[in-house]
Specification:
Number of strands: 11
Strand content: 15-25%
Radius of gyration: 18 Å
CATH topology: Rossmann fold
Order of helices and strands: EEEEHEEEHEEHEHEHHH
CATH architecture: 3-Layer(aba) Sandwich
CATH superfamily: Nucleoside phosphorylase domain
Helix content: 25-40%
Amino acid sequence: MSEWVIGIIGGSGLYAIEALEEAQWLAVDSPWGTPSDELLMGRIEGVRFVFLPRHGRGHPLPPSALNARANIDALKRAGCTDLLAISAIGSLREEIPPGHFVAVDQFIDRTFAREASFFEPGFAAHVSMADPVCPRLSALAADAAEASGAPVKRGGCYVAIEGPQFSTRAESRMFRAWGGDVIGMTAMPEAKLAREAELPYALLGMVTDYDCWREGEAVDVAEIVARLHDNAATARRLVVELARRLPRERTPSPIDTNLDQAVITAPEARQPAAMAKLDAVCRRYFAR
């Protein structure tokens, strides 16, 4: 058993939490490039938290410009044991209205212009994404959101699009036909990279709007920003509630060791240069 260190990936306004103690911003270097921002580290209710503004403070980075590999690597280097993403999403279902939170449990990845793996020539691995979300962390986060006053849907399929443009009506209707429940631009390859880094990952989506599958309606940025501001206080409360609800000690997760079943390159074929870049991602695996 060990200490929880919860990484929170979300908007910059999420981190103005009065309960955050010992707060300090820290720049973390990564062999994968520059993370979106410095990391804000501190404690809430005695639990260590590490916050990363996904789009940078002030939101200068569009979705396709996010260096997800550097972000996940930096959080791993900072000692995170689990990652919770808190993200704005659009709804593809009438029964999931704006203002609801969704504890996502599946993804359809439609991104195409992003680096989606840590594993490059010289060291290959294939992690399972059959169940891409950590059920333990997702349940804890959903409980915390409900305790903070948010209506929560447990379970839902997130369609990740490249962006930065929103969907056409034809695309939005297609995503509904595929079984998508919500839509966004940031969860992929974030969730894939977290799994490669042996970090249990959960995502709470904050529904800001209905996507354009509704006749006569279109997504509006001003509407999204207004809803995000409305949800910000709830999001901050749920982080505090999560700290209060975590078990005192963290028992191991199967995700902690998933590289044991994923690495395929034979030891004699592994290239030192490739392994050097994986010093944080594969730290436990290399130390076996």
